[in-house]
C-alpha cells in the first residue's frame, strides 16, 4: 500500500530505500496500531492523489486518547525529512520507556476495550 512508502521514494523513483525509509514505514504502522485500521482506509482517494498528498506532507490524524509520548514518537518517525527521523535504537529505547511507564491498569483497560470490540 502506498501509504507505507517513504515519501522521498514516492517523489523520486531513484531514491534508494534506507534505514530512515524503514523508520517512516514503522511510524505508519505505529499509527495503525493505535487506530486499529490501515492508513487512509476510510478515505475515498486514488493512489495518485494520495501519493501527491504524502509527498506534500499529509499524514493521518492522531487518534483521540493516544498517549502523547507514543504519538510524538510515531510522528517523529514519519517526518518528511529522513534526517529528522529517529534511529531504530532510539525508537526501541523510547518504546521500552513507554512500556515501563504504563501501569497494570492501562493494560487492563486495553484488554477490556479489546473484549468489548470482540477482537
Automatic annotation (TrEMBL):
InterPro entries: Kinase-like_dom_sf, Prot_kinase_dom, Ser-Thr/Tyr_kinase_cat_dom. It comes from Rhizophagus irregularis. GO terms for molecular function: ATP binding; protein kinase activity. Pfam families: PK_Tyr_Ser-Thr. Signal peptide: none annotated. It comes from the Eukaryota. Residues 1-98 form the Protein kinase domain. The lineage of its organism: Eukaryota, Fungi, Fungi incertae sedis, Mucoromycota, Glomeromycotina. Keywords: Kinase, Transferase. PANTHER family: MITOGEN-ACTIVATED PROTEIN KINASE KINASE KINASE 7-RELATED (PTHR26392), PROTEIN KINASE DOMAIN-CONTAINING PROTEIN (PTHR26392:SF92). This is Kinase-like protein.
Amino acid at each position: 500500500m502506498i501509504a507505507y512508502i517513504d515519501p522521498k521514494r514516492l517523489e523520486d523513483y531513484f531514491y534508494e530505500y534506507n534505514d530512515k525509509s524503514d523508520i517512516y514505514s514503522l511510524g505508519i504502522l505505529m499509527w495503525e496500531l493505535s487506530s486499529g485500521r490501515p492508513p487512509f482506509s476510510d478515505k475515498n482517494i486514488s493512489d495518485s492523489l494520495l501519493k501527491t498528498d504524502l509527498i506534500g506532507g499529509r499524514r493521518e490524524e492522531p487518534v483521540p486518547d493516544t498517549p502523547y509520548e507514543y504519538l510524538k514518537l510515531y510522528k517523529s518517525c514519519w517526518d518528511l525529512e529522513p534526517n529528522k527521523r529517529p534511529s531504530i535504537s532510539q525508537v526501541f529505547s523510547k518504546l521500552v520507556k513507554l512500556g515501563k511507564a504504563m501501569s497494570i491498569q492501562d493494560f487492563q483497560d486495553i484488554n477490556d476495550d479489546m473484549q468489548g470490540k470482540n477482537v
